[in-house]
Design a protein that fits this description.
homotrimer, alpha/beta, eight-stranded mixed β-sheet, 8 strands
C-alpha cells in the first residue's frame, strides 16, 4: 500500500489544472505589505483575488467567493471587524485558511489568533515561532499532530522542511529555497495559494499540502534563474504561471 | 476627411511628450493593492503621483494636482470621505477620472459609483461587468454611446478590444495582450495613465483614448519579452518609460 | 589627518556585515505605497521588517525592535496615533529616523513634522523641498549644518548629490542614478536602510551616511543592468543583496 502522500505531486497537478479551469474567487483579508504580491501569485495560477476589508461590503465579496484567506498581518480594529463578518459568511459554506502572521510578536494578536482557531478554519499555515505562540506548546511533530486533531483542522508548518498534518495523515515537503525567506510576503502568498487549492479540492489536507508543494517547487525553479531576492519575486510568479505536472512530478521531495 | 481617431497614435505621442515635459501631478485615491504599481506606471511616463487619503490633508494635495483618479477598490468609510473632499476640490478646476473597480460584486459600491457619475467625471474607465452594474444596461456599443452622451463623460470600456466614446466620437483599440489580465492592478494603472493624459490634454476623449492606447501597446511590447505575468509587470513599466512615437505609430490598431 | 568621511565606504561594509550577522528588527511606520518595496529592501540586506500600525499592538512590536522608521507618507489620524505610541516606546532605547515625505505639499503634515523633530529623532532623511518646509529656511549647506546642530540630529538631504551632517561632520555623496527617481518609494527605502544601519551602529552620522551610500551604489549597479524603472526596482534589491566591501570601496564617491 502506498502512503497517500506519495500521490501528492499528481494531486497537486490536478488541483492546479482545476484552478486554471474554474478560476475560483479567493477573498483575501491580508496585510497591506502582502496584498500586491499575494494578488499576483493568485492571478498567476488562474485564481481571482479580491481584497476589500470594508465592513459595508466584505459580506457581499465573501458571499461570492470560493475560499477565504484570513491573514493577521497589520492587524487592527477595522480588520478584526472585517474578519468577523467574513468568517460568518464563510462558515459552513466555503473553506477558510488562517495565517497568524507574527503572533509571536504581540500577545493581543496571539489571543485573537486563538479565538479564530475556535471558529474552525479548514487549515492554518504558520512558522514554528507562530505555532508556539498559538498552541503554547513546542512545534514538534507529535504536538502538531495532536493540535490538528484536537481542533479538527490542517496544520501546515512551513520552514526549511514543511510539515502538513490533519491529525491523521502527515506530509513532509523538502522543496523550497533559502532565498524565499528574503522576499516579503512569501509565506502570505503560500497561504493564499493553499486557499485557492481549498477552493477546488474538498480534501483539506491534500489541498493545503498542494499549495505548499506548488510554492516550494516554483521557488526552486525561480531560484535557479534569480540573481537575488528581487528577481526571485518576479521569477516565482512566472514559475507559478507555467507550473505543470512535469515539473511537479520531477521535483517533488515529499515524504 | 479622416476620422478623428485616425490621428490617435500621433496625438498619443504628443500627449506622452507633454507629460514628460510638464511632469503633471496626479493625485490617486486608489486601493492599497494597486498603489505601488500605479505609482510606478505614472513615474515611468514622467507624471508625479501622490496617494494620501487622509481627510486632513487630501484637500491640499488635490489643490496642487493637475488631475485626480478616483478608484473604488478597497472601498471604505475613510475612502468615501476622502473622495468627497477630493472631488469637491477638483470640480471645475482639474479633470478627474472614475474607475469603479468591482462594483459588480457589491451593491453598496455600485450605488456609490452611480452617485459619483452624477458629479461629472471627465472619464470613466471600466470593464463590461462593471459597466452593466453601473448603467443597469448591457455593455453594447449603442448603450455605451448613449450613456456617455447622457452623462456628458467619456466611457472607456476595456477588454480584449477597448472602446472609448464620448457619445459622439468612438475609438476602438485592438492593442494589448491576454497576459495583462494576470497582473493585479493593470486596469487601475491604465486609469491612472488616462488621468495623467487628462492632465495635459483638454480634449477628454482624446486624452482617455491615449492612455488606453499607450498601455495596450506597452503591454504588447512587454509580452514579447516576458516569461509570465511577473516579468510582464516589470517589462510594462520599462516599456512605458521608453514608449515613443515610433512604436505608437507602428503598432497602433485603432479603428 | 584624514577626514572621518574618508573611511565611510569601509565603515559601510562593516555595518552591512553586522546587519547580515545580527538580523536587526526594524519597525517601519510607512505609507502603504512604500511598504512592500521597503520590506524587500530591508530583507535584502538581512534586516527583519515589521509594519503594523495598529495602536493595540504597535507598542509590543517597537519594544522588540532594534530601530524605528517614521515615514509620514499617507498620513492620517490612525498613523499619528501609532507614531506617538511608537516614539514613546523607542525614546531613549532604540534609534528612530524621521522621513517627512511630501511635507511641502500639506501644511498639516509640515506642522506635525516639526512636532516630531522636537522628539529627538536620531536622523532625518528628506529632499530639498521637504527640508525647506520643515526648517522654514533654504536647503543650503550652512543651514543644514545649523539645523542638525540645533536639533541634535543627523540631516541626510538626498538628491543628485546627498549631504549628511550632524552639525559638526559632513559627508557629500555623489553616487546614485537619475533613474532611481522614477521608482516609487526609493527615498522611503533609503530611509529604511539608514534605520537598519542605525540599529547596529551607535554613531548616528556614520550609520545614516552608510545607508545613503549603500543605496546610491546599489542604484548605480542596478542602473547598469536595467532597461527602465521597472527592472531597476528589481535590480536594486538584487544589488543590495550582493553588495560587499569590494563594490563599496571601488565605487564610493564620498567627499
Amino acid at each position: 500500500m502506498r502512503a497517500p502522500q506519495s500521490n501528492l505531486p499528481q494531486s497537486t497537478a490536478e488541483i492546479l489544472a482545476r484552478i486554471r479551469e474554474r478560476a475560483p474567487r479567493v477573498h483575501c483579508i491580508t496585510n497591506t505589505v502582502a496584498q500586491a504580491f499575494t494578488a499576483n501569485v493568485l492571478l498567476a495560477v488562474g485564481a481571482v483575488p479580491s481584497m476589500t476589508i470594508a465592513p459595508e461590503e466584505i459580506g457581499a465579496f465573501v458571499a461570492g467567493a470560493d475560499a477565504l484567506l484570513v491573514n493577521l498581518g497589520t492587524f487592527d480594529a477595522e480588520r478584526r471587524s472585517a474578519i468577523d463578518i467574513a468568517i460568518g459568511k464563510a462558515s459552513g459554506r466555503i473553506p477558510w485558511l488562517l495565517d497568524p502572521v507574527f503572533i509571536d510578536r504581540s500577545p493581543t494578536r496571539a489571543d485573537y489568533g486563538r479565538e479564530l482557531v475556535a471558529q474552525s478554519p479548514a487549515a492554518i499555515r504558520l512558522n514554528a515561532p507562530e505555532f508556539v505562540a498559538l498552541a503554547g506548546m513546542s512545534a514538534e511533530d507529535k504536538v502538531l499532530t495532536f493540535y490538528a486533531g484536537e481542533h479538527g483542522t490542517v496544520i501546515a508548518l512551513t520552514g526549511p522542511t514543511d510539515v502538513i498534518t490533519d491529525g491523521i495523515r502527515r506530509a513532509q515537503i523538502g522543496n523550497g529555497h533559502a532565498l524565499m525567506g528574503c522576499v516579503t510576503a512569501m509565506g502570505c502568498a503560500g497561504s493564499a495559494l493553499a486557499a485557492a487549492c481549498l477552493a477546488v479540492e474538498p480534501d483539506c489536507w491534500i489541498a493545503t499540502a498542494a499549495g505548499v508543494l506548488a510554492l516550494g517547487i516554483a521557488g526552486e525553479m525561480a531560484a535557479e534563474r534569480a540573481r537575488g531576492p528581487g528577481s526571485l519575486s518576479i521569477e516565482i510568479v512566472d514559475a507559478l504561471y507555467r507550473l505543470d505536472g512535469g515539473a511537479l512530478l520531477q521535483r517533488a521531495e515529499v515524504a
